[in-house]
Amino acid sequence: MSTRTFVLIDGENLDTTLGTVILKHRPEPGERPRWERVIEFAEQLWQQQVTGLFFINASSGQVPWPFVNAIQNVGFRAVLLSGSGGEKVVDLGIQRTLDALAERPGDVLLGSHDRDFLPHLQRLAEQDRQVAVLGFTELMSGGFAEAGIPVHDLEYDVHAFNVHLPRIRIIPVHDFDPAEFLD
């Protein structure tokens, strides 16, 4: 039985999805997730202590210190990675971390929409680990659901935002609130 949940956040993937697909502009500070709520959600999800790792592409050589300080203040450890030639350094770092976790105890909550992590999560699930993904469900790779990996919505399950995002999603009729569309 695991006693720790590792929360791995693909910062590039979640930020790009939020800005490009959902908001269609660079998110303002008030439109960004409240990362402390992700830590709290993870603690409650499997009733375990949490180690949060937030992966950031630092290939430019610049460290976004205000952001790094903010996420570290809420319980994440910043993992600043660099590479060259268009390497997907964040994806590589997360994949290597998932592989390393196969050799030690722990469950995984992954914040990303990227199907590239599916084989790694499946391997962990085959070891009787609890694994799940976190993001915007309507934009999540269908491979996760097909593999039986639970998907948690960053806005509706985690309540990570202080604003209502302009999302287009399938709404189960018993959850439908016409006021959302009338206000």
Question: Can you summarize this structure?
Answer:
This protein has helices spanning 11-23, 35-46, 65-73, 89-101, 118-126, 142-146, 179-182, and strands at residues 4-10, 49-57, 76-81, 107-111, 131-135, 151-153. With 183 residues, it is α/β, with parallel strands linked by helices.
Topology:
Blueprint: E1 4-10, H1 11-23, H2 35-46, E2 49-57, H3 65-73, E3 76-81, H4 89-101, E4 107-111, H5 118-126, E5 131-135, H6 142-146, E6 151-153, H7 179-182
Parallel strand pairs: 1-2, 1-4, 2-3, 4-5, 5-6
Keywords:
183 residues, 19% strand, alpha/beta, Rossmann fold, 36% helix
CATH class: Alpha Beta
User: What are the secondary-structure elements, in order, as H or E?
Assistant: EHHEHEHEHEHEH
Total number of strands: 6
Fourth-tier CATH superfamily name: 5'-nuclease
Question: What class, by secondary structure content?
Answer: alpha/beta
